[in-house]
Design a protein that fits this description.
Two copies of one chain form a homodimer. In chain A, a hairpin with a 5-residue loop joins β3 and β4. In chain A, 45% of the residues lie in helices and 17% in strands. The first copy, chain A, is an alpha+beta fold and 174 residues long. In chain A, strands 4-3-5 form a three-stranded mixed β-sheet. The first copy, chain A, has a two-stranded antiparallel sheet with strand order 1-2. In chain A, 34% of the residues are buried. Chains A and B meet through β3, α5 and β5 of A and β3, α5 and β5 of B.
DNA sequence: CCTGGAATGCAATAGTATATCAATGCACCA
DNA sequence: TGGTGCATTGATATACTATTGCATTCCAGG
């Protein structure tokens, strides 16, 4: 079984032309499996929200999701519906909250209870995930020296993804 | 000139009993000097907001600041007033925005255009700042390998500060 | 069945942030 | 001195983000 993984913790961005449908179905399949294993319920609603989040590789706001959800259902959905689904998905590690954008993005590594570093392109809005344990360990050690006990990390890097950087260069040479 | 520095980039938390007045006046004096040097205007309003932020070592929400500001002025202040002041103070490196709390905290190292790592105590709400260039360099290098150009960092660690950790232990032994 | 907890629906409201335009202040220069 | 132009502040409205509380439905286990 060869699986096309476009976000794998290497910080690689989804190449623009990729088989995105398999991206989505893949994420959903793994979510299904994971929830099964954990004995939690991936309900229709939660699956639907997860699918919406995976509709692209850029973080979506809760109200973006809300709108799309309402569309798919014929015009009715309330904020708590979305926020509750998001809460569940976060608990299961299936999505990350992006603090600096007030938005949510799918996570491709839900199995590991990792703390991801996010790379956020300020130009195209796409996100990629980096996993570097060494960085966290260093931070944790440094915090411990100050007597601080770390419980959760937020690491978000904003900048330009490879594609947008190139575009910018070209424009710059005009 | 010996100056009492309670936040110095070491991640040390302000000891509960410290001369906080000198903390505030110190921060204000340096802000004054810095703005002078840079040829930007630290107006009354901005100074007032900065002082409010420095009224403690825990991040304040914009609307907390707004309320206090209104108090000090006799009942009138609007959100944009506060947000504009905050924007200025951020640009000058005098305050940091805390993304994971939607709040703002004073920065004691405005001279260096550093990207601080914040330690946030979930119990008492106090914040301390860590400055570890190595961590940023590592992240930057890692991102660069993926072709990503980092422009700004958000690193926020939530957990328990030394004091609250001790309290927790004591309670735990009950 | 039927029952108890989880999940969802629904209405209201709380909390955070920005857009827009008018009025004022201040540095600079003629 | 007085004007000119830009930065700053005031004021109103509105957009965007998130939560509370309670009613209803669903569903696994007894």
């Amino acid at each position: 079984m060869t699986r096309q993984v476009v976000e794998d913790g290497s910080g690689r961005f989804a190449a623009n032309p990729h088989d995105h449908e398999s991206c989505v179905s893949d994420a959903l399949a793994r979510a299904e499996e994971l929830c099964q294993q954990r004995g939690v319920r991936l309900t229709d609603l939660r699956r639907q929200v997860l699918a919406l989040i995976w509709s692209g590789h850029r973080p979506l706001g809760a109200y973006d999701i809300l709108t799309k959800l309402a569309d798919e259902r014929g015009g009715k959905a309330q904020p708590p519906t979305v926020y509750r689904a998001l809460e569940f998905l976060q608990e299961q590690g299936l999505v990350h909250r992006v603090q600096s954008l007030n938005a949510f993005v799918g996570c491709n590594l839900p199995e590991e209870n990792h703390r991801g570093q996010l790379l956020l392109c300020r130009s195209c809005g796409e996100a990629a995930e980096l996993v570097d344990g060494a960085c966290f360990e260093a931070l944790e050690r440094r915090a411990a020296e100050a007597g601080f006990k770390v419980e959760s990390f937020v690491v978000e890097l904003s900048g330009l993804c490879p594609a947008c950087r190139t575009d910018g260069d070209e424009k710059g040479h005009a």
